[in-house]
Amino acid sequence: MKVMVKCLSPLLQKTLEIYLREHLYDIELADVLITDTKVLSEKVVFLVGADEKCDLQVPFTKEELFTALERFYNNNPRLLHIRNTKETLENMIEKLNKKHHEKITRLIKSYREKA
Distance between CA 111 and CA 49 in Å, rounded? Predict the structure, then answer.
């Protein structure tokens, strides 16, 4: 998840920055712009506020934020490529782990046969 936070409310801005510190990126690299104001943006906009139409209503907990963001990523067609890339990467890692496990097993068997 790569996000950029740009809120009019300083309190909301700081809270989101603290909660999302490991996921913050410059606007050029971010997938999603998180804001408390309706804005026009080339990025996908995740709206936080008191309105029922917002993607996340205030007040919220850290868990509610991450749940809402995960749901947003999974349901937004403009972010589909991110989910597919993640799944593909996970599959590649799983295959590599399996190959390495098989090689290590063969090496151990070979070592035991020689000893």
Answer: 63
